[in-house]
Design goal:
Domain AB hydrolase-1: 21-244
GO cellular component, one term: membrane
CATH class of the domain at 9-119 and 185-253: Alpha Beta
Pfam families: Abhydrolase_6
Keywords: Hydrolase
Strand content: 15-25%
Distance between the termini: 38 Å
Radius of gyration: 17 Å
Order of helices and strands: EEEHEHEHEHHHHEHEHH
CATH superfamily of the domain at 9-119 and 185-253: Alpha/Beta hydrolase fold, catalytic domain
InterPro entries: AB_hydrolase_1 (IPR000073), AB_hydrolase_fold (IPR029058), AB_hydrolase_sf (IPR050266)
Strand order of the largest sheet: 1-2-4-3-5-6-7-8
Helix content: 40-55%
């Protein structure tokens, strides 16, 4: 475990490996969401931060995608040591990853961007604070957390940790995270990147997420886009075996497996 700017960062794998992998979780969960991927890529050097205000990382509002991206880029630069750099991001973590690439277009070799919302939603933004004010008291009820966990494919193995972490997030931090999530837009400056992108989205996800994936593919020269059939928001947890196989194949060959739907 290491600490950087109050971020809790778990270290696993082989710190002598030639490849460094960083995993960025989604909002409302923490680094444990990548447990299936961490075990799969156990021969690599892996860093798994808990984002500000999540898990074991303290944080006070406002939450900032831009600032978090800066900090994680700093961490990668400090730990790179000539290694190949691979970064996974899911949902909020995927937005941070897009921002990291925009800020440092040549730092990361490969980026796996899962379910990133890159189109601002001003109408939804206006309802965030009143909606959270009404629903936040329900978080303490296990049945409510169970419903939320189900939408993210959180299984029984991880539910207790998910529930405990839901209880510890303040209402103000939750509002701030959601406001950043709903207002983030991809910058055209990302076109300058040399990073190779694997952009994934679930077939059952919202249209705004599917369109965001299309937008990103159009902006980046080195990009592949996958729509996972029958999946909602959370392919790394919903079907980790499939997800790991697809990503590993792409990292090794630079191509998407023939049995997977592209675009």
């Amino acid at each position: 475990m290491i600490k950087l700017n109050n971020l809790y960062i778990k270290e696993t794998g082989n710190n002598e490996a030639e490849r460094l992998i960083v995993f960025l979780h989604g909002g409302g969960v923490s680094g444990w969401m990548w447990n299936h991927q961490i075990s799969y890529f156990k021969d690599d050097y892996c860093l798994i931060p808990d984002l500000p205000g999540h898990g074991r990382s303290p944080g006070t509002p406002p939450f900032s995608i831009s600032r978090t991206a800066e900090v994680i880029n700093e961490m990668i630069s400090a730990k790179a040591d000539g290694r190949e750099i691979v970064v996974f991001g899911f949902s909020l973590g995927a937005q941070i990853l897009v921002e990291m690439i925009t800020q440092q277009p040549r730092l990361i070799n490969y980026a796996i961007i899962n379910s990133a919302l890159l189109r601002p939603m001003p109408s939804a933004y206006r309802w965030i604070e009143p909606s959270v004010r009404m629903t936040y008291p329900l978080i303490r009820y296990r049945w409510f957390s169970g419903l939320q966990a189900k939408t993210l494919y959180v299984d029984e193995t991880h539910f207790e940790q998910y529930y405990a972490e839901s209880l510890q997030m303040s209402r103000e931090m939750l509002v701030s995270v959601l406001q950043e999530n709903m207002s983030y837009a991809v910058s055209p400056a990302i076109q300058e990147t040399t990073t190779k992108l694997l952009i994934t989205v679930g077939e059952k996800e919202r249209g705004s997420l599917k369109k965001s994936a299309e937008d990103l593919e159009k902006l980046c020269v080195h990009a592949d886009r996958i729509v996972f059939p029958g999946i909602g928001h959370g392919i790394p947890l919903a079907d980790p075996g499939l997800f790991n196989r697809v990503v590993d194949h792409w990292l090794v060959t630079g191509t998407v497996p023939e049995d997977i739907t592209q675009g």
